[in-house]
Specification:
Order of helices and strands: EEEHEEEEEEEEHHEHEHEHEHEHEHEHE
Largest sheet: 7 strands, mixed
Distance between the termini: 11 Å
CATH class of the largest domain: Alpha Beta
Radius of gyration: 19 Å
Number of strands: 19
């Protein structure tokens, strides 16, 4: 079958038109893929920054396809476990070490399959699972976001961040963001945000505070040197949820700020099966459509990755699978 297969840290991944379809575990079922979407996770794997890398594994976590004659999406997380508060030691995600979705046929547990939201086409639905699940859990399960609260979502323009923005607006929250360019600022404001600041400005946090005040919730995926600034922007009793660390560690965090303001700092990774169900219901209820940056055929995987890595991309990168 046609597939994008990881070879090694040195060689990355290649498009293979004759990859031998792997055998699936007994409790897995096969889905005929229509489209799949890239995530930063795929880029981390290609750069050798992901643990447990194995050769000859089909990449990709997101996707949409056909199962028993009906259009479906599926939860890309395997073996979450019994506790809804955190994943089990056996939890893993399609696309490494399990074969993933950049291919014509993918095998997933039958319990992970759900009917595709009817208002989304295959391309739009393929962009939803991983990023949508991550955003939903961070916003609602972990942060407990409520209507009327002020929420700051860093890095507006990325896949998960845009879902956070769409979900937060739909929930009735007051939504703000940071981003790295004037073009993205304009596009975010058109989506209905109350305010957007450029994180490349030296005093962006002070500019934000003076114009918009402090916020009740912060959702962040970057970490790094700006992490402490986000903490400082929280109201007393506020909550910060982090779901990523693309900029690495932060050495400037003040415990005094955290304990004196009675702050909540929480981590969030992917989501439980119930989170996935709740996310799909929320998307259908509010008729949310993922923001798609660009669509490529599976054979143009290299171009799709290049676009994902570009600083000016805005939204999800999707691969179509014939």
């Amino acid at each position: 079958m046609k597939a994008v297969v990881f070879e090694s840290e040195e060689n990355g991944a290649t498009y293979n038109e004759d990859f031998k379809r792997p055998e699936a575990p007994d409790d897995f079922v096969e889905i005929s893929m229509k489209a799949s979407a890239l995530n930063k996770r795929d880029d981390f794997i290609l750069k050798g920054l992901y643990p447990g890398l194995r050769p000859n594994v089909v990449l990709g976590s997101d996707g949409c396809g056909i199962y028993e004659g009906r259009p479906v999406v599926f939860d890309p997380g395997i073996n979450w476990g019994e506790n809804p508060d955190y994943q089990s030691p056996d939890y893993h995600i399609l696309g490494m070490p399990q074969h993933g979705t950049f291919c014509e046929k993918v095998s997933v547990p039958g319990t992970n399959i759900y009917t595709k939201p009817s208002h989304l086409d295959f391309t739009q639905a393929a962009a939803l699972p991983l990023a949508g699940l991550t955003a939903y859990r961070a916003l609602f399960t972990r942060a407990g976001l409520e209507a009327g609260q002020k929420v700051l979502i860093s890095g507006g323009g990325g896949g998960v961040a845009l879902f956070c923005i769409q979900f937060a607006i739909a929930s009735g929250a007051r939504v703000f963001s940071t981003t790295g360019s004037k073009d993205k600022q304009d596009r975010l404001l058109k989506m209905g945000l109350e305010g957007v600041v450029n994180y490349n400005e030296k005093s962006w946090d002070k500019d934000f505070s003076s114009e918009f005040g402090q916020v009740d919730v912060v959702i962040d995926s970057a970490g790094g040197d700006g992490f402490h600034r986000l903490i400082n922007l929280l109201n007393p009793g506020g909550t910060l949820v982090t779901y990523g660390g693309t900029l690495g560690k932060s050495d400037n965090i003040s415990p005094q700020v955290i304990f004196w303001k009675q702050l909540n700092i929480k981590g969030s990774t992917m989501g439980s099966p119930q989170d996935f169900i709740d996310m799909l219901q929320f998307v259908e209820q509010h008729q949310i459509v993922p923001v798609i940056e660009r669509v490529f055929p599976l054979s143009d995987f290299d171009r799709a990755v290049a676009r994902l890595r570009s600083k000016d991309h805005f939204g999800k990168i999707v691969l179509t699978i014939s």
